[in-house]
Every structure is written in C-alpha cells, then in structure tokens.
Design goal:
- It is a single chain.
- This protein has ten helices and 14 strands.
- The chain is an alpha/beta fold and about 250 residues long.
- The mean pLDDT is about 95.
Length: about 250
C-alpha cells in the first residue's frame, strides 16, 4: 500500500493559500485510506503551527501528520546516548517542540549546539554560538536550505548562517533535514511502511527529489513551486515522474 510524503511550501501551499487541487488531493487520500505525512525543512514553526496553517488554508490536518526537520533533529538527538543538553538557536515554536520531545535546553553550558531557522537571530546569539563552537561542542543544523522564499524574494535561511559559522569558526555542522536520510528514516517509522511503498512529492530538485533518489524512493516532482520545466530539463537530478500539480497526481490512483 502506497504512502505519500508530501512537501508543504510549493507543493501543498503557496504562502498562506492552498494550491489548486491540494485540498481535494488530501480528501482523495483519506477516502481511499492512503496514509500521508507532510514534511518540511522550515523549522521556524512547530507541528501545531503548521497544522493551523494548513487548516487556515482549508486543509484539515492533525499534528501527527506533520514531520518537520525540527522533529527529525529531535529524533536524531534522542538516539544519541546520552542525549545532549542543547543550546538552541531557534524560534519559541522550535524550542517548545524540543522540550516536548524530551530534549533539555541549556543556555551556554551545553553539550551540543543546534542551529534552527531562528527568525529572532541577533549578534549576541551569534557571538554565544561562536564561543561554543570554539570550545568544540558537537554542531548540528536542522536543515541545509540557504534561502527561504518570501513575498519580497529569497531571504537568508540556515544554510547561509552555516556558511558564516564555517568561515568564522572553521566548523561544519551535521545537517539533518531534507535531503538527509534521517528525514526518510523518521518518516518511515511514523508511517509504519517500507521504502518500496513510499512516494515523496515535492517541488524542489535539490531537497525533495534528491532525498527520494538517495534513499531509493519513488519521487514525484510537481511544477507548482520553485522548479520550472526549463530547470528540470537542465538538471542532473531527475524525479521518477513529473506532474503539473497535486491535482494531476490524484488522477493516477
Ligand atoms: Mg517545497
């Protein structure tokens, strides 16, 4: 039985609005008893905030149906023995997910530094993080995206700050979100299905489609987000299939 791993931005939603056909696609999945999990590299919002954002766009969702790169990072940290006390650069939403996931947050005197999408990043926070990195604490990042789309154009995301810390401190982070295998492993565990049954659907070749290809999972590209047909024609990373939108994916089952 197939299960879908669905990207949010550019696949299910565009900004605050549902993409045409997305709500009907989710209803079709539910009607047929086909499981799905939304996944996103945007760690500025908690699963509950993403649930509300989907609901506001007219798509009913449960928090358990959402898996963020922050959740994958929590799973990864909980798998370490002992789980580290974490100095977190992130939003209040991300911090609350970390605490709920059993991660102890510590200011300064921590065993690990985690860089999330911190919309309140200040020079003071950067300075403290640099001191921790100079002390040699393990360094993790929730996702690799260099920029995040915004209505006014792309804005700096975690990958840009990773470049800054690498230049300033000579340290590189272990990066958890898409396209890493940690994201796929966590999704498989939550969906309770095998790799052969999983189909990843997303709009970005470098994250969604690369993750699918690296993990040996069927991948569907939708052209409702950042990738155009011209981009696809020129790219070395190719999906299993390409669709105009989720509405077209719904026509094959
Ligand atoms: Mg996307």
């Amino acid at each position: 039985m197939t299960a879908f791993l669905l990207d949010i931005d550019g696949t299910t939603l565009l900004g605050p609005e549902a993409l045409p056909g997305a709500a009907a696609f989710i209803e079709a999945l539910r009607d047929r008893g086909i499981r799905h999990l939304w996944m996103t590299n945007n760690t500025s919002l908690s699963r509950e905030s993403w649930r509300r954002r989907l609901e506001d766009a007219g798509i009913a969702a449960r928090a358990e149906e959402i898996y963020t790169a922050g959740d994958a990072t929590i799973d990864f940290l909980c798998g370490l023995d002992p789980a580290p006390r974490v100095h977190l650069l992130g939003t209040d939403d991300l911090a609350s997910d970390f605490r709920a996931g059993g991660i102890e947050l510590a200011d300064g005197d921590a065993d690990a530094l985690v860089l999330g999408y911190d919309l309140g990043l200040t020079y003071e926070k950067i300075r403290k993080a640099a001191f921790l990195l100079q002390r040699g604490v393990p360094f993790y990042a929730t996702h690799p995206d260099v920029t995040c789309p915004s209505p006014d154009g792309p804005i700096p995301d975690v990958g840009s700050f990773l470049a800054m810390f690498e230049v300033a401190c000579g340290r590189r982070a272990t990066v958890i979100g898409k396209p890493s295998a940690a994201m796929v492993d966590g999704a498989l565990q939550r969906l309770g299905c095998s790799r052969d049954d999983l189909v990843v659907v997303g709009d970005r070749l470098a994250t969604d489609i690369r993750m699918g290809n690296d993990a040996g999972i069927t991948s569907y590209l939708v052209l409702t987000g950042v990738t155009t047909q011209a981009d696809l024609d020129a790219a070395p990373e190719q999906p299993t299939r390409t669709f105009a939108s989720l509405a077209d994916v719904a026509t094959i089952f």
